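[step 3/7] inverse_fold.run input=structure_tokens len=213
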């Protein structure tokens, strides 16, 4: 089916609307960063992704998304973890991120997700800074996520609401502290049967650009 001009421009409308909303909210403290993402779907389960990233083959598929994220760093874990307290853990940041994504290729739908994030302190090597982050939350598809795997008992069935996992490395330069390159795995699944059956879900390898207010 041929897509009309409004449908074809939806990714760009979403990007503009979300970026504008995040900037407008910056002064109120709701968000302190905005990111733009592009992603490639891969025929891998989550455990296979690390090996694929280091050269075993991505198993790319013709499923993609573009979108934006608006995030907020709430603070550090500080001394609230009792016996696990350490200098490193005390400086782990926590916060949240909202993502709004437009899928294309094997599926054509909008995805909205929200995740609670933990982020490590920066590792600094000369001018290069890198940190690692992980997020856990919920993702909902406004449309049919037809690219995703269905349950073994009913492979054609699709589940719009699933668990969201974000695994990320953020790269920046000391001379440009407000800008960073983001590399991420975007994972949707049924939370081992809690939200949707086992074997349901998808994985995307993501690249992005982030600006911190």
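[step 3/7] decode complete -> sequence:
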């Amino acid at each position: 089916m041929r897509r009309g001009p409004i449908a074809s421009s939806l990714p760009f409308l979403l990007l503009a609307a979300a970026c504008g909303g995040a900037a407008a909210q910056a002064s109120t403290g709701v968000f302190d960063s905005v990111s733009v993402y592009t992603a490639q779907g891969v025929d891998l389960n989550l455990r296979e992704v690390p090996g694929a990233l280091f050269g075993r083959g991505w198993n790319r598929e013709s499923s993609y998304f573009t979108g934006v994220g608006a995030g907020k760093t709430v603070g550090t874990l500080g001394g609230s973890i009792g016996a696990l307290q350490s200098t490193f853990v005390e400086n782990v940041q926590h916060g949240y991120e909202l993502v709004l994504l437009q899928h294309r290729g094997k599926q054509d739908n909008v995805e909205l997700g929200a995740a609670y994030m933990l982020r490590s302190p920066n590792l600094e090597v000369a001018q290069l800074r890198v940190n690692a982050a992980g997020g856990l939350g919920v993702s909902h598809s406004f449309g049919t996520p037809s690219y995703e795997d269905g349950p073994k008992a009913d492979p054609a069935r699709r589940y719009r609401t699933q668990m969201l996992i974000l695994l990320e490395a953020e790269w920046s330069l000391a001379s440009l502290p407000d800008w960073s390159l983001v590399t991420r795995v975007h994972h949707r699944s049924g939370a081992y049967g809690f939200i949707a059956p086992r074997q349901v879900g998808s994985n995307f390898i993501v690249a992005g650009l982030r600006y911190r207010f």
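[step 4/7] annotate
The CA atoms of residues 47 and 55 lie 15 Å apart.
The beta strands are 33-42, 60-76, 93-105, 110-119, 123-125, 128-142, 161-173, 176-189, 201-212.
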